[in-house]
Amino acid sequence: MSFQPKNVLFFGATGAIGSYILDAVLSARAEFDRLVIFTSQTTVQNKSTLLADLKEKYKVEVIVGDIQDEDAVKKAYEGIDTVVSAVGRGAIATQLPLIRLANASPSVKWFFPSEYGTDVAYSPASASEKPHQQKLKVRALLENKTEVPDLAYTYVVTGPFADYYVRFSGAREAGGWDVKNKKATLLSDRGESKISLTTMKDVGILTLAALRHPAAAFNKALRVNSFTTTPAEIQAEFERQTGGQPWSDVTYTSLETLRQSEAAAWESGSPAATVWTLRRIWTEGGTLYEQRDNALIGEPAMQTLTDVVSEAVRQAS
Ligand SMILES: NC(=O)c1ccc[n+]([C@@H]2O[C@H](COP(=O)([O-])OP(=O)(O)OC[C@H]3O[C@@H](n4cnc5c(N)ncnc54)[C@H](OP(=O)(O)O)[C@@H]3O)[C@@H](O)[C@H]2O)c1
Asked: Domain named NmrA-like: which ranges (predicted)?
């Protein structure tokens, strides 16, 4: 295959994970001709310094518009060969028209929908998981060769972001590590269930690696990660990096408790329901693969558990 992406347009490029993807691509700026960000007026107002910097330092083109404005998107696609979307969870369905427009565009050949997480087609049970429904619709459209015959796709499937996994971000029972108070909650009975994690920096590096390897990445879910570990190993690493003594306040959340909290959250319409479902899936082993695909895209160097813990310790000090 002779195709190499040269003119790339990003949706959600200044978001939580989009900014890591953009950073990685900017580190290889010379490999691309045009890098274009399609962003909202809100982002222009809130992140004006960042956008000015991107234009000035990296010659990134910034298009301001509404992703639901088809004429604006059509115009933005002119001359673009690859679209990388990192829109937030609330905007996953807005990618459906973006994909149809990309397919109709004479120049766009390749589309990365916003994935960067749990594999929504991991097992037959995945089809009925509530948080997966919008991403599954996006995949169904991209794989529908009648409706979308002219567009290749790549799903960058990374599992949970390690940076988020090692923090508390809600109920204590949902798991996490608190360095200041030497307090942790490990998911699974004895913290021994394996989990595959990717740091946010590595999500960027892996997406760039996919862009560099179109032949391997075309029409594929790339199941990649930084490392596989267990909550118990993470705990041991935190203890090692904080003086070598056992932490006094360590609790465990069993799968059974996760399932109960998940059911209660969906029942009450809590916004945390998605978090409980994902954590239950991860603790069941839903991030593990017999073989990861990093080698298909050049086996870029990845961060380690030591790096993630040392960053969490640094942030706490
Ligand atoms: N693996 C994990 O642990 C993990 C964790 C979090 C997220 N993710 C995944 O990563 C992807 C990106 O998530 P994120 O958290 O990085 O996104 P985010 O920061 O919430 O949003 C990214 C961008 O999406 C655009 N957007 C436009 N309309 C939106 C809407 N209605 N709701 C939300 N965003 C909208 C905005 O860009 P503009 O203003 O520039 O238009 C926004 O900056 C998602 O697929 C998500 O599921 C994975």
From this structure: 6-244
Using the structure block, give the residue that is written with the tokens 């002779």.
2
Residues with a CB atom less than 6 Å from ligand 1: 12, 14-18, 39-40, 42-43, 67, 86-91, 114-117, 158, 160-161, 164
**C-alpha 12 – ligand 1 centre gap (Å):** 6
Question: 2 pLDDT band (50/70/90 cuts)?
Answer: confident
**Contact between 98 and 24 (Cβ < 8 Å):** no
In one-letter notation, the amino acid at residue 97 is: P
Regarding pTM above 0.90, the answer is yes
CB 167 within 8 A of CB 177: yes
Please identify every residue annotated as catalytic: 135
- Distance from residue 120's CA to the centre of ligand 1 (Å): 17
What pLDDT, in 10s, does the model give residues 15-27? Answer: 999 999 999 999 9
| Distance of alpha carbon 309 from alpha carbon 205, whole angstroms | 19
Q: Is the pLDDT of residue 1 over 60?
A: no
Look at ligand 1, atom 32, and give the residue with the nearest C-alpha: 90
SS3 content of the chain, % helix, strand, coil (to 5): 45, 15, 35
Which domains are present in the chain?
Answer: 7-158+200-225+288-299 (3.40.50.720), 163-194+229-286 (no CATH)
Indicate if the pLDDT at residue 68 is higher than 60: yes
